[in-house]
Write a structure and sequence with these properties.
- This protein is of the alpha/beta class.
- The protein has 15 helices and 27 strands.
Length: 558
């Protein structure tokens, strides 16, 4: 038996699968106490189930997605050590940025020492402004992290209660701007993500569940729960990934479709080409800035069924945030869900309260409750449709999309829109119509995220760095270090070693993986030069077991 649980900003969903059939589903409002929400969802789907029969539980969550979409995180300062090159004015990362002296070159050699007095003055200034979370990022820190570590030691001595994230750990690949953004997001999300993981652990302990537990990543792969705490930013688009896999599993194979998940807080948009989710070639994009997080080509838009509606002058507008449930469900303000209720496009909530919400917006403008609801529908539909059209332009730049078009032998756009999530039945037909597409709302659409989590194939990854000059290799996930033969080690042996370690790790988790199923997600070789001679090489690579659907859904379950 498999369980999938999706912890969203509005609802927590869960499903129980057995032999590919959906036996039980649960959909409950997400409470402030996540532990309570997780326990309630688990208790519903596990009623009369022997927990010893559970093989695996996979969690997905929009907790981090919603925090970032609404910018509801503690402020983070960035201490950058860029060295010579670009003008410092170009380092605009939409937060407090402090440039420190010092430089490591591309070979990993120190060419300019740090200025400790400058560092201490910078820290004093940040403390005065109330910062307690900082990211430290050197341009070439993956080659030599000594400067980042040195600054971190100074912070630890002067401000031991501060949270510090180092760039070489958060984003181990070269590409300074993406590593900066990845480190910033890691710093901003570590605490709330740790709270989420603690709630999961407590829930499992209270119900004495000992099954394997994984977290769904942004690329539809998974991380063991205990390892995910070190990489919170990997779950940045966990919810959108879950909805995409859910759509993939609930619709016909080999279909090309746009997946739109309309939740209470956000709407997630993704693309499936011939049955396979489109992977972003550049990594996750957040607030227009790229990261080093491997992800599907998805977008999370801050508009949902519980978005705040208000009147501004003679216009009705929505704010990209959520104060609680819809007014018809006891919430404090009018929302798009109230509009759906007035138009009889959902059965949720009290119709009288929904009319009251629409009248509070429309009466001063001379509109009835129905006219106001239609206005709100048009507003939300046009907003989501505009975002989908923007995504079409971005998808067309993806290499995998271009290959797909080439195989079609003509320029073509997907003609099917699949809607899932609580708001899908009301909004998706109109969104599809605006896009000139066919609308599909599959069975179990309201809990598609939980289904996506449940059916996702468990994956594991290994990040290996080998240094032939020093004669050692290091596995980042486990902190393991071993020796290599300096003279005979090469790129092929590095890949062979990484695959061997990954297969060993998979065996520990009871996962059956063949060498052919292992994909290389990152690979880089760097020559180390002394004088005119090559004295060694650095091999950096990451391998992962293949992603996909482990348990195909059989329709006709309870």
């Amino acid at each position: 038996m498999y369980v999938g649980v999706d912890v969203g900003g509005t609802f927590t969903d869960a499903v129980l699968l057995h032999n590919g059939q959906i036996l039980t589903t649960a959909k409950i409002p997400t409470k402030t106490d996540l532990l309570e929400s997780i326990l309630e969802a688990l208790d519903i789907v596990l009623q009369d189930v022997d927990i010893r029969d559970l093989k695996r539980i996979v969690f997905s969550t929009t907790v981090i997605t919603n925090l970032i979409a609404g910018q509801k995180y503690d402020k983070v300062a960035l201490l950058l050590i860029p060295g010579p090159g670009l003008s410092h004015k170009l380092y605009d990362f939409k937060t407090e940025v402090c440039i420190l002296s010092g430089a490591i070159d591309y070979r990993g050699r120190e060419i300019v020492s740090l200025n400790e007095k400058e560092i201490e003055e910078t820290l004093t200034r940040l403390a005065t402004k109330g910062f307690k979370k900082v990211g430290i990022i050197g341009k070439f820190s993956p080659r030599n992290s000594s400067h980042e570590k040195q600054v971190a030691e100074i912070i630890k001595e002067k401000y031991p209660d501060w949270q510090v994230e180092l760039g070489f750990q958060a984003g181990p690949q070269l590409n300074f701007p993406r590593r900066v953004v990845t480190t910033f997001l890691t710093c901003a999300t570590r605490e709330p993500y740790s709270n989420f993981v603690n709630s999961v652990r407590q829930a499992l302990a209270k119900r004495e569940i000992t099954a394997e537990v994984f977290i769904l990543k942004a690329d539809t792969g998974t991380l063991p729960l205990k390892h995910s705490v070190e990489l919170p930013v990997e779950t940045i688009f966990s919810g959108p990934a879950a909805s995409t896999v859910g759509v993939q599993s609930l619709t016909s194979p080999d279909l090309t479709e746009v997946a739109i998940d309309i939740g209470g807080t956000t709407t997630d948009i993704s693309l499936i080409l011939n049955g396979q989710p489109l992977l972003s070639a550049k990594g996750a994009r957040v607030e227009g800035q790229l990261t080093q997080v491997r992800t599907l080509a998805v977008k999370s838009v801050p508009v949902g069924g519980d978005s705040i509606l208000e009147r501004v002058g003679d216009e009705i507008v929505f704010r990209p945030e959520r104060l609680g449930p819809a007014y018809c469900l006891g919430g404090p303000v009018p929302t798009p869900t109230d509009a759906l209720r007035v138009l009889d496009l959902t059965g949720l909530g009290d119709e009288g309260k929904a009319r009251e919400a629409m009248e509070s917006l429309g009466t001063p403008l001379g509109m009835s409750a129905v006219e106001t609801a239609e206005k709100v529908m048009s507003l939300v539909v046009k907003s989501i449709t505009a975002e989908v059209k923007k995504m079409f332009l971005e998808w067309e730049q993806e290499p995998a999309y271009r290959i797909w078009e080439l195989l079609q032998k003509r320029k073509v756009s997907p003609s099917i829109v699949v809607g899932v999530g609580g708001g899908s039945e009301g909004f998706i037909p109109r969104i599809a119509s605006e896009l000139g597409c066919q609308a599909i709302i599959p069975p179990y659409a309201p809990v598609a995220n939980a289904i996506g989590a449940a059916v996702a194939k468990p994956t594991l990854q290994i990040s290996l760095r080998a240094d032939t000059e020093q004669g050692y290799y290091h596995i980042r996930e486990d902190g393991f270090q071993g020796k290599i033969d300096r003279r005979s080690f090469n790129e092929g042996k590095a890949l062979e070693l990484a695959r061997e370690k990954l297969l060993d790790k998979a065996a520990e988790y009871g996962l059956e993986v063949s060498p052919e199923e292992i994909e290389v997600t990152h690979q880089e070789v760097f020559n180390m030069i002394r004088g005119w001679n090559t004295v060694g090489r650095l091999y950096d690579l990451t391998v992962q077991t293949s992603r996909g659907i482990a348990v195909p859904i059989k329709m006709g379950g309870k």
